[in-house]
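Entry 14: structure prediction run for Glycine--tRNA ligase. Input pasted below.
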Amino acid sequence: MAQEDVFKKIVSHCKEYGFVFPSSDIYDGLAAVYDYGQNGVELKNNIKEYWWKSMVLLHDNIVGIDSAIFMHPTIWKASGHVDAFNDPLIDNRDSKKRYRADVLIEDQIGKYEEKIEKEIAKARKRFGDSFDEAKFRETNPRVLEHQKKRDDLHARYTEAMQGPNLEALKQIIIDEEIVDPISGTKNWTDVRQFNLMFSTEMGSTSDAASKIYLRPETAQGIFVNYLNVQKTGRMKIPFGIAQIGKAFRNEIVARQFIFRMREFEQMEMQFFVKPGTEKEWFSKWKEFRMKWHQALGFGADNYRFHDHEKLAFYANAATDIEFKMPFGFKEVEGIHSRTDYDLKQHEKFSGRSIKYFDPQTNESYTPYDIETSIGVDRMFLSIMCHSYEEEKLENGETRVVLKLPAALAPVKLAVLPLVKKDGLPEKAREIINNLKFHFNCQYDEKDTIGKRYRRQDAIGTPYCVTVDYDTLKDNCVTLRFRDTMEQERVSIDDLNSIIEDKVSIASLLKKLQ
Ligand code: ATP
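Run finished. Output tokens:
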């Protein structure tokens, strides 16, 4: 099946099984805003718990906060967001569609790369085992031609983005003869800057002073609380502050479902270190964050680092963790070495001294910061994409199964009475009443057992138990495993010990030690 079709199926599966709904659905939705349903919220909460505990529980030098979404407007001046949190936009006059100029150019770079890959695939087929890819790349005239075009464009693009130089961006679009995918024309407007922050007014007057912003990232809430936390928590460098919360961006190109939303959630951690040690900490955090992702068991091949070639002027290292989505490798998390830029800016704009006094060396300094920043929703999407499977069964039927990591699954155990009478429902309820304090259980008595299994497979429930007439005599149930569909007769008394450990967030956290 084409990857595009797989993605469409995942989107409709999310809606059909109560994971993600378009916001304001009965009013035909609101672009790039989504609601999480009864199963989605459980999965999302589990992702957040996994992240939070991996930061705050596993590190005795990391604490959490929960800062407000509304903040003093000067914060966004200090952080640079008022002046520079912009995307370069261009409109096509025929389709009346708006695009990000940088995305159009990056897609064009991608097209040259695709052409090279195609030449290589063709040659590999032709030469078979004797194919030497490195040599082919170095010598094949067509590959060299595409490579040169790609590199020239990339260099021009990187230079135009410094600033950025809007005329230069437009000139690239003209020179490369980039057409609008909808109208097919090159009838472009000039490139303009567009600020991504939503603003609103606070209080009853509408003068300029009352204009405030919905935060476009949670990080600034951490920086402005640096002093509060360091002092009240008696934190010693190095230490970190973690936060999970909503962020808002007026994204122009809002597409790919929950990949790019206008209201989304971030999990960010700022780790404050002594200047000069930041590179070392940057590497440590890169390694730890990759381990966090890979502990989910999706396979190392599905992840890669993408080191930034062009750094923000205040950063001295930056990388993205990318995950292989059905639409290619995409950023899920960013790790940035932000130097002392943010704290220094807040020092300047607030007039307050934000320094750390090291009692051992008697030195005072502004700490450097390593940031790890991951989107909850993008993480959710990557998990859904990887877990969704359509399996051909031996009897010719197809089952749709979400092979979610057990610790993240919305429901851990479904308890199914074989029939709705003769004391079996009561026995099933009794099992749930004993286990519900340990993990999330669901009762289901409707339809055949087979149909009930399918419903649980579709929401990723790792375990089902069936209560039958023998259960009333021997206190045993049939335990069915989601992935293998194998069944086993087990005692009700053993259920908790068989399941609890495997479905707990602790089972994931232990892999990080
Ligand atoms: P992109 O280049 O994809 O716009 P970004 O580099 O602007 O992302 P950051 O500012 O580094 O993203 O934000 C950190 C994380 O927050 C991203 O890795 C992503 O997971 C998440 N994120 C950012 N913007 C969005 C969005 N509009 N919708 C959903 N998640 C987002």
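Notes: The mean pLDDT is 94. Will compare against the previous run tomorrow.
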